[in-house]
Amino acid sequence: MIKTVLLTALGVGGATVVGSLFGFIVKKPSQKFNDITLSFAAGVMLCAATLGLIVPSLEMSISSKKIITILVTVAGIFIGAISLNLIDKLVPHLHKMTGVDTEAHPHKTEQLNKVLLFVIAIAIHNLPEGIAAGVSFGSENTAHALVIAGGIALQNIPEGMVIIAPMVSSGISKKRTFLIALSTGLIEVVGTLIGFFAASISAFILPFALAFAGGTMLYVISDEMIPETHSHGNERASTYALLVGFAVMLCFDFLLG
Question: 209 near 128, Cβ under 8 Å?
Fold first, then answer.
């Protein structure tokens, strides 16, 4: 199991690096392409959060009382969301920072600061996503865990693409840009390992940990991904892309479950 978790952690974190490599190749993909890709990933994550994390949280409760079971799961969802909300108060929103325009910011120092804040925001958001991937292995359903990790990795690819152009255009060398992108992926690797070992410590905390991870994913989907994909005139295409992503993950979950 440890080997599988480690390989999965590397895969989840490596997806950001893969996305960054695409970012070097496709220097400026169309906004519609970005919105559709991110919406598809949001649909995948939405299904993974509900069926792979929140539902198992209810099913794995060790309490015989339904009221305690539901309270633990609901508390985990909200505490997970609130935790990311507090993080968002410390760093800028991703959907507010993806539109870094070099022409609109003539002063390189100011522009660089904005870009670095954007990268820090992505790095911080990667930690709970990695934890969500790691916690899912605590349920001992490897197939579900791999599906969840796959959904998170899929979302990391366009995220990795997004961070390249602002850094290169702000004057950061390509080598340093790649190293920064790599570091954001490594944070997700660390998060995955933290989530796995935390969930493995005790069966008592596993239902809460699963719900917490599900809450963080729901928060990212609602607060970051959907607003970003619905702010450029591509709402209809983005909505259907989300539904397709949800359906694809649903099929994988059913066939592998």
Answer: no
Q: With bands split at pLDDT 50, 70 and 90, how would you rate the model's confidence at 239?
A: very high
Q: Is the dihedral of CA 227, 232, 236, 240 positive or negative?
A: negative
pLDDT of residue 247: 93
Cα dihedral 249, 128, 90, 161, rounded to 10, equals -50
Structure tokens at 80: 């997970």
Query: How many residues comprise the chain?
Result: 257
Mapped onto helix, strand or coil, the DSSP state of residue 171 is coil
Sequence-distant (≥ 6) Cβ neighbours of residue 136 within 8 angstroms: 52, 53, 144, 145, 148, 149, 195, 210, 213
pLDDT score of 104: 46
What are the sequence ranges of the domains in the chain?
A: 2-256
Return the structure tokens found at 127.
């930690």
Any idea which residue has 């910011």 for tokens?
Answer: 105
Token pair for 130: 């990695």
In the predicted structure, residue 161 carries a pLDDT above the cut 80 = no
Q: Are 76 and 104 in contact (CB under 8 A)?
A: no
Distance CA 50, CA 31 (A): 28
**Count of CB atoms within 10 A of residue 52's CB?**
29
**Which residue's entry shows tokens 């390509």?**
174
